[in-house]
Design brief:
Blueprint (H helix, E strand, L loop, with lengths): L18 H64 L2 H65 L17 E5 L2 E5 L1 H15 L3 H14 L6 H14 L3 H14 L6 H14 L3 H14 L4 H13 L1
Antiparallel strand pairs: 1-2
Helix pairs in contact: 1-2, 3-4, 4-5, 5-6, 5-7, 6-7, 7-8, 7-9, 8-9
Length: 303
Amino acid sequence: MKFWRLCALASLGLGASTSQAALFEDDEARRAILDLRQRLETQRQAQIQSSDQILQKSLDQTQKQIELLRKQLEVDSSQAKQDSSQAKQDSRLAALQLQSQIEVLKQEIANLRGEREQLLREINLLQRAQKDAGLDIEDRFQKLYERMAKQETFAAVIEEAPKDNKLSVQVDGFEFLADPEEKRDFEAAFVLFRKGDFSAAAKEFGQFVKTYSVSGYKPSALYWLGSSKFARRDFNEAIAQLRNLVTDYPNHARTPEAMLTIGNAQIEIKQSKEARKTFNDLLKLYPATEAAAAAKDRLAQLK
């Protein structure tokens, strides 16, 4: 089931230099999510079309084989009329064999059609689930946007530290001191993510985590790194990076969303059992979060 790769990008947002800037950046992030969803939908439709074409081609080839066998049967039957009694018996035997082959081919066609119908049913289920997931993402993002709009200030940079030139910044509800270079590099990586350049964003966030290993930005950087990997369909690497966030920063605001994305990635690589465990852990550890509500819906769809 490949529809779940979109669900991990829920609730994308990052604080900006003022309350107005934060709302502006979240609006851009929301557009980035919508663009990503459109790209994934286009890819999914292309995969669906390719599967239909392959099945149809197989059906056409099988039908041609039947027609060739029927023509051969007609030729053999005509020849049998001119042969001796023994030759007629041989021809009848050959006809029976050909007829048996025809029946086998007919059964193969029926099986192919059954598989095609099953595939179409699964595609319909995937499309419905994707639509529900998209609505869920938009709803949770809107709630986040409204919650941030009510804050009087949400400053990414409050003031410069007079002695060591560090900046006091606030990201994802956590306030900490950072060098100007840290802030610059983190924001540059996030700009790439908002533009939909997930390959470049993954590279920059990965470099950020290595360069600023003790930075207050690190948990947020891990979240966006994992999200970039998910968007590039590198599901195993997305799981690995997001697990670093879940393990090292269990109290971070992005941790519930990270667990939700991990579960969706596990579904994409057909690890349904692991995905159920991830969603159940999310419900147990963060029951009051929007991510937990989404995980509950995913569990219902997995049954």
